[in-house]
Amino acid sequence: MKFFDYFKSSNKGNPDGFNLVLSGGGARGAIHLGVLKAFDENNIKINAVSGTSIGAVVGSLYCAGVKPDEIKEIMKSSRFANIFQLSLRKGLLKMTKLKKALAELIPVNDFNSLKIPFYCCVSNLDSGKYEIKNSGELSKAVLASASIPIIFAPVEIHNNHYVDGGLLNNLPVDPFKGDKNVIGIHVNKQTYNGANNMRGVAERVFTLISKQSVDKNRKHCQYFIEPILEKSYNVLDFGSTQELFDIGYKEGIRFVNQLKAKV
User: Fold this and answer.
1) Neighbours of 51 (CB within 10 A)
2) Which residue of 67, 108, 117, 166 has the fewest C-beta atoms within 10 A of its own C-beta?
3) How far is residue 44's CA from residue 66's CA, in Å, rounded to a whole number?
């Protein structure tokens, strides 16, 4: 009997599965994939996913039916590492190659095409507020959610300009507030060893800002997975994908074992 089948049979179990909240964190998003692999192996049902930044990329692909191992291999490839191209006109990076990759993996560009309901958090530069999108054109919402300010160009949707959802909400639990079956995964708990360049400082500032929303929203998660990273991983350090994936898998198995102990 698979673990979730056993879990359902218990009075303490949750027959409806879990809602999952995935934080941003750039390359550290490979941790999400490791956790998801552990969940899949133990037949833990995911009802719905809410994600921001790399959590939106991972979440949208997973909800489309792409397996964690497959997403990991894509992240490890040079194709993914070079997915961003320089836009000289704006002096920022834009994600036209990521848009192409999403189109290949999710042929129908609509939230309704996904196998699992998905919510995507984006930050609206015009209103100064975050938004949770779950209908309409999928790729633009995901691209906007992953557009790290200062590094990547904003994405325009209906005459509004959007950037990384993690800027204003790096743990978008909003769709699941009040539920008792929410698992939050945060991937940014690592030691800060200083920065000697503009991008390093910008990343640190962004992390400190987004941490405030995580501290506020984690109380709405019944379960919270937050591995402590023993070394620093750059937001674009996709060369460490396998290492980060393994950390996530280990945390996922630890979480499953804790649930088994409760049952």
Assistant:
1) 32
2) 108
3) 16
Burial class (CB in 10 A: 0-12, 13-18, 19+), 91: exposed
Q: Give 190-199 pLDDT, tens digit per residue.
A: 877 666 666 6
Instruction: Identify whether the C-beta of residue 21 lies closer than 8 Å to the C-beta of residue 182.
Output: yes
- Sign of the Cα pseudo-torsion (77, 80, 85, 91, in order): negative
- E strands, 118-225, in order: 118-124, 129-133, 155-157, 160-164, 182-185, 223-225
The helix or strand, by DSSP H or E, that contains position 21, with its residue range, turns out to be strand 18-22
Tens of pLDDT, residue by residue over 172-206, are 999 999 998 999 999 998 877 666 666 667 677 77
Q: Is the Cβ–Cβ distance between 205 and 84 less than 8 Å?
A: no
CB of 63 closer than 8 Å to CB of 118: yes
In sequence order, which residues have a C-beta less than 8 Å from that of residue 69 and are 6 or more positions away?
A: 33, 37
Residue 260's pLDDT is what?
87
Rounded CA-CA distance 28/64 in Å is 21
Which two three-digit tokens encode residue 177? 């507030």
Query: What distance, in Å, lies between the first and last C-alpha atoms of the chain?
Result: 14
Question: Contact, 74 vs 80, CB < 8 A?
Answer: yes
Radius of gyration of the chain (CA): 17
Give the orientation angle of helix 241-262 with respect to helix 30-41, to 10 degrees.
Answer: 40
Could you list the beta-strand ranges (E) of 60-211.
85-87, 92-94, 118-124, 129-133, 155-157, 160-164, 182-185
